Amino acid sequence: MxxxxxxxxxxxxxxxxxxxxxxxxPRKGQRLFLVCMLAIPIVNWLVFWLYVNVSSILLAFQxxxxxxxxWSFQNFVTFWQHLTEKxxxxxxxxxxxxxxxxxxxxxxxxxxxxxxxxxxxxxxxYKFFRIVFYLPCIITPIILTSxxxxxxxxxxxxxxxxxxxxxxxxxxxxxxxxxxxxxxxxIIVYTILTGxxxxxxxxxxxxxxxxxxxxxxxxxxGCGPIREVVTIVIPLxxxxxxxxxxxxxxxxxxxSGPIMLLVTGEYQTSTIAFWIYNIVKIEGDYNLVxxxxxxxxxVLIPLIVLVRSVMDKISDVEY
Length: 319
Fold this sequence. Notes:
mainly alpha; MetI-like fold; 2 strands; 3% strand
């Protein structure tokens, strides 16, 4: 089939070509607008990250000797010793932090996805369940942790129930068992129950953008709920899932439950965030904390970039 542009007059073709080029080139006002909008996050990063953290980065390479700061790599040696020493607070905190991250990535996020899917189907009482799941995001954590602690006490409803099932139920509840992983696992259960609501809102918003015709067509083809989730819903909201994964990964070393409110960091429940707080408050060792932050950042940045590049390649879906 011949190109219709070949029959146009030469002047008209030149006019169309110039009009196309003019549309492609940004105008002076557009360039100024782009520069101003990009300047805001750049200045924000320079002032509130680089300027604030440059002194922290330098502290990692300094050590206090007789009241005088001297350049040294001793902080990195001390950090590695704490990290590899079995039973050390930093070692325990890192393990607990990874447990919190894995619970959010492997349990909370899939559960939120399933809850969002069934609520999007407008099951019986879906409005009530939507409020119930989102309620922990509205109520202050102090109230939630207090209620949760009281429920697990031997005199609480859950404590009485578990006491009948297990006669060896702890007298002070599962949150206060020394030298055990039970308090940490109990807090993880709390974070899962209270974390579904936030993810549910994100996934519900993404699912609401899926055309209803897609689900109607799948229903006509005899597609069941499980297959619908795996082959339709997940691929179409993969961009939202990838964003959630990247955000979750970026906060892996700050992942923490409400250990201050529930157990004040005791009973082997410490996390990296609490360890940093504890070191600064009790020992005042800013150099070691700065070293830990620098090491965790060096490990995390390449990991985030790698995961982001992989997720961008598999989440390019348009509908």
